[in-house]
């Protein structure tokens, strides 16, 4: 099967942060041969998105290059997509249809496939409604060649299917919630990897957890949530990789991937991964986009570490300058950021990140300071080992009973008392 050929169109304006390099990478990730990219600087034209003069230029390119599709880096309204098709007589896609095509290629698990299907159907609803409106105006023959009755029935089918998918995803979400609760009961800390697509999150997960999860130098490699154990001293830590962000992530994708993105919201710590090897303008754009998505998810209050990854692809001076600028942005927009650290997941340079996590963990809200009394009938070595894995031992005094000052996860109190251990005088503040 031959590669599909496409002409790209990108319209820059004050309202949208768009990158030609990222757009071309999206096209390649979806499997298109890029014949040309047409660019324009102007505010949105209500009828065609681009101006009429640029539309005439695009018409000539279509006649000359004969692409399979014309793909816009901008979001098109249903009316704009129809008007462009009428003028060009070639299939028209916009940025989010392009992203959804990539998602379809990358989805492997049942959950990921359902999430992609839900997002695609949500996107299709306004297109079908526009088709019905056009039919009534006598302007075109239905949606994908269907007449008015067939198009109306198709709209009903979409809504029925969306309802069914949402119920299935709700079951997945409930099951994930049960598993998460069980992990917390076992004293695991939950750390989520978040960040812009292709920042190196999967490679970082592999480096920390000693795994071999698929990690490629391409956009949206990870759509399926992956959770692995991560050794941080004697602590019980679980690391979860999540779907990558992209600028102006639309609400219908956020909703469709809610059960996956919820892992960020429920995490104890968020690692926001940034590709430090890119030019500062790109680093800043992607950082701001990621912060905005975390704000939409209501996850900006989580303890966060910004991870400057891929430092092996640049120099120390460049990384330090970017770190300084990022800290300035974080102070203003993301005050929950506890540290900005340097890593190279590819080369296993992880020391700064591990030190930052070791410093942050004792201050997490789930930890409280207790005096712990271990009776003579209980093996103190076993209890101290358990405490080190689920909390932190601050001091130990030996007598008839072993007395320990330490930090304990609140969720583990029942487990400790079940072992015959006494806990006294919890502090009102985490340390």
TrEMBL record:
GO cellular component: cytoplasm
Keyword hit for Metal-binding: yes
PANTHER family xref list: GTP-BINDING PROTEIN HFLX (PTHR10229), GTPASE HFLX (PTHR10229:SF8)
Domain Hflx-type G: 189-365
GO terms for MF: GTP binding; GTPase activity; metal ion binding; ribosome binding
Primary site of residence: cytoplasm
Pfam families to which the protein is assigned, alphabetical: GTP-bdg_M, GTP-bdg_N, MMR_HSR1
Lineage: Archaea, Methanobacteriati, Methanobacteriota, Thermococci, Thermococcales
Co-factor requirement: Mg(2+)
Family, similarity comment: Belongs to the TRAFAC class OBG-HflX-like GTPase superfamily. HflX GTPase family.
InterPro entries (alphabetical): G_HFLX_dom, GTP-bd, GTP-bd_M, GTPase_HflX, GTPase_HflX_N, GTPase_HflX_N_sf, P-loop_NTPase, Small_GTP-bd
Binding site for Mg(2+): 202, 222
Compartmental location: Cytoplasm
Annotated binding of GTP, by residue: 195-202, 220-224, 241-244, 309-312, 344-346
Magnesium is among the record's keywords: yes
Description of how the protein assembles with itself and partners: Monomer. Associates with the 50S ribosomal subunit.
Summary of the function given for this chain in its UniProt record: GTPase that associates with the 50S ribosomal subunit and may have a role during protein synthesis or ribosome biogenesis.
Protein name: GTPase HflX
NCBIfam families, sorted: GTP_HflX (TIGR03156), small_GTP (TIGR00231)
Gene, per the UniProt record: hflX
Keywords: Cytoplasm, GTP-binding, Magnesium, Metal-binding, Nucleotide-binding
């Amino acid at each position: 099967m031959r590669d599909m050929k496409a002409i790209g169109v990108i319209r820059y304006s004050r309202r949208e942060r768009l990158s030609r390099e990222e757009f071309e990478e999206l096209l390649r990730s979806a499997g298109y041969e890029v014949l040309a990219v047409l660019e324009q600087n102007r505010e949105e034209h209500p009828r065609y998105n681009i101006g009429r003069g640029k539309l005439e230029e695009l018409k000539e390119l279509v006649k000359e290059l004969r692409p399979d599709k014309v793909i816009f880096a901008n979001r098109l309204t249903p009316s704009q997509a129809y008007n462009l098709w009428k003028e060009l007589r070639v299939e028209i896609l916009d940025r989010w249809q392009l992203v959804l095509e990539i998602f379809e290629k990358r989805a492997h698990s049942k959950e990921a496939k359902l999430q992609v299907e839900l997002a695609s159907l949500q996107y299709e609803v306004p297109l079908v409604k526009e088709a019905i409106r056009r039919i009534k105006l006598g302007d075109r023959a239905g949606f994908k060649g269907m007449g008015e009755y067939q198009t109306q029935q198709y709209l009903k089918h979409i809504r029925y299917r969306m309802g069914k998918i949402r119920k299935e995803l709700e079951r997945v979400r409930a099951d994930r919630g049960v598993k998460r609760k069980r992990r917390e009961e076992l004293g695991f800390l939950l750390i989520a990897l978040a960040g812009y697509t292709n920042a190196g999150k999967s490679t970082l997960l592999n480096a920390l957890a000693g795994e071999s999860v698929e990690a490629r130098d391409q956009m949206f490699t990870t759509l399926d949530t992956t959770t692995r154990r991560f050794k941080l001293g004697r602590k019980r830590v679980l690391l979860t990789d999540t779907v990558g962000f992209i600028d102006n992530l639309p609400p219908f994708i956020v909703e469709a991937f809610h059960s996956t993105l919820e892992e960020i919201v429920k995490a104890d710590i968020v690692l926001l991964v940034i590709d430090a090897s890119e030019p500062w303008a790109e680093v800043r754009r992607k950082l701001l986009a990621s912060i905005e998505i975390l704000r939409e998810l209501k996850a900006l209050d989580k303890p966060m570490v910004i991870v400057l990854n891929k430092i092996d692809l640049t120099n120390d001076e460049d990384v330090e300058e970017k770190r300084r600028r990022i800290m300035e942005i974080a102070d203003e927009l993301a005050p929950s950021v506890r540290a900005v650290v340097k890593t190279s997941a590819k080369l296993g340079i992880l020391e700064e990140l591990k030190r930052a996590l070791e410093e942050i963990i004792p201050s997490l809200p789930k930890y409280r300071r207790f005096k712990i009394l271990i009776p003579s009938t209980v093996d103190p070595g076993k209890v101290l080992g358990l405490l080190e894995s689920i909390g932190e031992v601050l001091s130990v005094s030996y007598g008839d009973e072993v007395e320990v000052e330490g930090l304990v996860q609140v969720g583990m109190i029942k487990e400790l008392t079940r072992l015959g251990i006494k806990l006294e005088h919890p502090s009102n503040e985490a340390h």
